[in-house]
Amino acid sequence: MSRIGKLPVEIPSGVTCRMEGTVFTAKGPKGELSENIPSDIQVKIEDKTILVTRPSEQKRHRALHGLSRTLVANTVHGVSEGFTKKLEVRGVGYKAEIQGKKLVLTVGYSNPVEYPFPDGIEIKAETPTVVAVSGINKQKVGQVAAEIRGFRKPEPYKGKGVRYIDEVVRQKAGKTAGK
Q1: Which of 67, 84, 87, 166 could make a disulfide contact with 131, Cβ separation 3.0–4.6 Å?
Q2: What are the pLDDT digits (tens) for 93-114?
Q3: 83-164 in CATH: which number?
Q4: What SS3 string covers 25-76?
Q5: pTM
Q6: Where are the domains of the chain?
Q7: Which CATH class is domain 9-80?
Q8: Do domains 9-80 and 83-164 have the same CATH topology?
């Protein structure tokens, strides 16, 4: 039995959930999200909990069980609290700022890198070196954070670049002078 799949999903107050065919929809204070659930997987909404079950022990059903439960849990969590990823811009002269609906990164190129905000995503420059990406869709938040990190990945010698706030970049030793 899937350890993740068999866990019930708690529905917080202020969130309403419904299942129509294979589409699970949750509506809460942050907005509304829908997620397609594989047709083999059953989602039962009871009072303040959601149970996700599978019809058999086939390999395909076992694989989809935990996935479906996690998709449902992320949808419920997203409409109630939302998701946030923080990025750190590290390097001499490196900074991030918001100009209108664009994130402008100065990360060592001849011109600043401009990144327009995607729909449903909010980007804040908390300090010139810390950027917070937030939204209700966990997949979108992660994708946007990865795209911003991709403009200048952290390099292993000096550690300069854009990294996740909790990311550890292993430092390499540079060349040493002749003996």
Answers
A1: 87
A2: 999 999 999 999 999 999 999 9
A3: 3.90.930.12
A4: EEEECCEEEEEECCCCCEEEEECCEEEEECCCCCHHHHHHHHHHHHHHHHHH
A5: 0.89
A6: 9-80, 83-164
A7: alpha beta
A8: yes
